[in-house]
Design brief:
single chain, 7 helices
């Protein structure tokens, strides 16, 4: 079997002889270059097949973990009344603490449309900010089409294209292609410093209370 280019593992699996024993037996068997190349080729084929199985297994395990996390999150949210104004205000406050501008202007920038969609919708519905008080700007890569990206963000945020007043193209990215899914960074600004102060104080006081409770 060895002289017919069978690998030690193949022989071990078929004859159930320990590999250490086989290695000792095969020390005196000389293989030709062709035989060695054939053994190596078969090893590479098995390796690729094993890797495919391993990747499939890991992907399946990841899906299971993601589904479990989703179920746990859904269960936790059952105890939260998303119609409660105080809950909505706290959610906006914590979002602003993490993503919003902390100095001077009241606004938020992000490349994730869901984050900005939540921010804009809460401003419009909870604080009744008029649309004409909201302005947007885009920071794009050099090869992106400003008009096309404006339409994308306008649709995502539910704001008229007229509210997108300024576009910046990063010339440092010239010659470097942009991934199709990347739609640049959108900055949403609103002139109400009073709301900014309320959100930041709400998040600050909430964090301090939670910290104090955890330390008690």
């Amino acid at each position: 079997m060895r002289q017919k280019s069978a690998s030690i593992k193949d022989i071990e699996d078929k004859l159930k002889i320990p590999r250490s024993t086989l290695s000792g037996w095969f020390r005196t068997i000389k293989l030709t270059r062709g035989q060695k190349d054939l053994i190596y080729k078969r090893w590479r084929q098995r390796l690729r097949a094993t890797r495919k199985l391993a990747i499939a297994w890991h992907n399946n395990q990841k899906l299971i973990r993601l589904k479990e996390a989703e179920l746990q999150a859904s269960e936790s949210l059952k105890n939260i009344d998303i119609h409660d104004p105080s809950v909505i205000n706290l959610a906006l406050s914590m979002l602003y603490l993490g993503e919003g501008f902390k100095k001077k202007a009241f606004g938020m920038g992000n490349s994730d449309s869901m984050i900005l969609k939540l921010f804009v919708s809460l401003l419009l519905k909870t604080y009744l900010i008029p649309i004409d008080k909201i302005s947007c700007e885009l920071h794009l890569r050099a090869d992106q089409n400003p008009n096309k990206i404006k339409k994308y963000w306008s649709k995502e945020l539910g704001l008229p294209i007229s509210r997108f007043r300024w576009v910046s193209l990063d010339q440092r990215t010239v010659g470097s292609p942009t991934y199709p899914h990347y739609k640049g960074v959108c900055i949403v600004r609103c002139g109400s410093i009073a709301i900014q102060r309320k959100l930041l104080y709400t998040s600050k006081i909430f964090c301090e209370k939670v910290i104090d409770r955890m330390r008690a």
